[in-house]
Design goal:
- The complex is a heterodimer.
- By secondary structure, chain A is an alpha+beta fold.
- Chain A is 29% helix and 45% strand.
- Chain A contains 2 helices and 8 strands, in the order ββββββββαα.
- In chain A, strands 1, 2, 3, 4, 5, 6, 7 and 8 form an 8-stranded mixed beta sheet that branches.
- By secondary structure, chain B is of the alpha/beta class.
- Chain B folds into 2 domains: 61 residues, Helix Hairpins (Orthogonal Bundle); 218 residues, 3-Layer(aba) Sandwich (Pyruvate Kinase, Chain: A, domain 1).
- Chain B starts with a helix and ends with a helix.
- Classes of the chains: A alpha+beta, B alpha/beta.
Chain lengths: 136, 294
């Protein structure tokens, strides 16, 4: 069976480069699953979980926004940060959530900034929670 | 003629200095390689972004983004200066700072207020000397800037720019051109002048794109612009780090060679002085013998 090649690149390094049977990506509005033979796709990523399934094993990462490009059987992900889900910093995410909640909102730009911070914190917390439940 | 002993002492201390400069050269060499690797992996990211933008541009869309918008008047400008935390790297710091002060003068004439932000202890000290109080100073970037740290900075600039607290961001840093050429430059990062990859595709005819866009090409582009800014800023930091190591390597190599030269000269003088001393002593002995005989 054809396999996908999943490449995750951050500005610092190539975080992941692996073969995969199935990849789940956090798009801006929900998750998308990509199987081998997917039609070419270009998408905007949100803050959330990347799951790479190889031979029944699932590896989880937190992705911090970015883009995905699928063409051929290559999934290339460009993201600011790719953190293994088990290493998520829950305390920092909770702090960011609380700080963002208390930001003063006077203009629509400020609102957009706050929404982005909230979405980021929410994504991080969710990934951390899922990683915890996957382990137990 | 100087005393042979003092010459020997001097030669000894120069040998010690040579050891230090030689070690620093080796360290700088190793760090340069690491920094270079980081810069290369960052290039992989920018290349992919450029490719993505080029693919996007095939769908033929207009680019409009708050970060690209030119402001007719600059009320508040930000000048970010990237220097090293340590010296011993030849003209690296002074080159950047000279350019920074010139630009600072020009900016103060143009803009109502100029905010300076400095990275690196050397820059902070130089600002203090010129009695310019930097609004922010960073020493945590060191020679291995982390993307996470740079991102915080980039996000702050973007937030302030979109909320119109600042109208312009200029960065003064040392650009890495090749391992034998680096030069201090001023770059205006905000408003963003261009997004790489867009120009390349415009010359080609717009064909029906093979890609499915989620949610839409415009929306992706909206996100590409901030990313492009962040990566550009990150690249400045990486370039500065790589250039610093090269500068230190070159400076320390020159220092080591110079020490070698001095040691050679001192050795020669020392040998002469020693020979003169021996001759002197022999003369004295002969003189003494002659005196006894007569």
């Amino acid at each position: 069976m054809a396999q996908l090649t999943c490449i995750v690149v951050t500005p610092e390094a190539t975080a992941v480069e692996t073969k995969a049977d199935f990849v789940v990506l956090p798009l801006y509005d929900g998750e998308i699953g990509i199987a081998p033979g997917r039609a070419p796709l270009m998408g905007r990523l949100g803050f959330g979980e990347l799951r790479i399934k190889v031979a029944g094993l699932v590896t989880r990462y937190y992705l911090d926004g970015g883009f995905v490009q699928v063409s051929g059987n290559i999934v290339s992900v460009l993201t600011n940060r790719a953190v293994p889900a088990a290493e998520m910093d829950v305390a920092a995410a909770t702090q960011q959530w609380q700080d963002a909640r208390q930001m003063p909102i006077l203009t629509s730009e400020q609102e957009a900034i706050r929404d982005r911070l909230l979405a980021q914190a929410r994504g991080q917390l969710q990934v951390a929670r899922r990683a915890k439940s996957a382990r137990t | 003629m100087a005393k042979a002993r003092t010459l020997d002492k001097r030669r000894g201390s120069i040998r010690n200095i040579r050891k230090i400069t030689r070690t620093m050269e080796l360290i700088a060499n190793a760090r340069f390689k690491k920094a270079m690797d980081r810069a290369t992996s960052a290039t992989a990211y920018t290349r992919r972004i450029t490719q993505l933008v080029a693919d996007l541009a095939h769908s033929g869309l207009e680019v409009q983004h708050p970060l690209l918008e030119e402001r007719p008047e600059t009320h508040q400008a930000v000048l970010l200066v990237l220097t090293a935390n340590r010296g011993m790297c030849g003209g690296f710091n002074s080159g950047v700072l000279r350019l920074a002060f010139e630009h600072y003068k020009r900016l103060t004439e143009e803009a109502r207020t100029v905010r300076t932000e400095v990275s690196g202890k050397r820059g902070i000290a130089a600002m203090k000397f010129r009695q310019i109080v930097p609004d922010q100073s960073f020493t945590h970037f060191e020679d291995r800037p982390a993307y996470g740290d740079v991102e915080v900075l980039a996000n702050r600039y973007m937030d302030e720019f979109t909320t119109r607290k600042i109208d312009r961001v200029d960065v003064v840093y040392t650009r890495f051109i090749s391992s034998s050429k680096q030069e201090p430059v001023i770059e205006t990062l905000l408003p963003l002048s261009s997004v790489e990859g867009l120009g390349a595709a415009e010359s080609q005819p717009h064909t029906e794109s093979q890609y499915e866009f989620l949610p839409s090409a415009e929306s992706i582009l909206q996100e590409v612009v901030p990313t492009s800014f962040r990566v550009k800023l990150f690249k400045c930091f990486l370039d500065a780090a790589v250039s610093e190591h090269i500068a230190r390597m070159v400076a320390m190599k020159a220092a080591t060679e110079n020490a070698d030269e001095i040691i050679r000269q001192l050795s020669m003088t020392y040998n002469r002085a020693r020979q003169a001393q021996i001759t002197g002593e022999i003369m004295e002995i002969i003189g003494g013998v002659e005196a006894l005989q007569s």
